[in-house]
Amino acid sequence: MRNEERLMVDGYLYGNEEDVKLAKEEKKTVEYLESRINYDDLQTTLKIYNKAVKDKIFKTPAGLEFLKKMRNEMIKRGMPEENISGIPLYKVFAKEEENKPVRIFQIKQNNDGTKEMLRFSLWANLALIIIVIGMFIITIVGENVNVINYRYKIENEYSIWQQELEEREAVIKEKEAELQLR
Known about the structure:
Elements: H1 2-6, E1 8-9, E2 12-13, H2 17-36, H3 42-54, H4 61-76, H5 104-141, H6 150-181
Antiparallel strand pairs: 1-2
């Protein structure tokens, strides 16, 4: 019984301390908004309502009851019901595996988008693998000096220089020999 009292806020019995804390924070937010909202200004009230729904400010029954009250007040004061969005529930009630809230967009993504995401991921990975293989081929075959072929390129360059120097030296020695014979 004592544990139940700790987990209760406004007559709702929550499953853990975090939910109780969230409910108490939402209750303070509701009290603050209640003191500031002028329900006669329907456009401002609708903006506040839409912002609260869009930003998912309220998730507990305390907050959802406040959204319901705002909705009913706007309808009562003449706002057409089709102009007011519905109050989103972030919990699935029919098939509850664990006592965790399940967001609607996650359910849709898992049912509809999984195959497309997997297919896209496979194609993207295949493209990246081909690009990496191409980069290795360019690195190995290319004529620019790089980490893989620097030793061979430098050795070849020095051997070419050495060969050119030896040829020049031979030409110079021939010229010197001709000059000495004269």
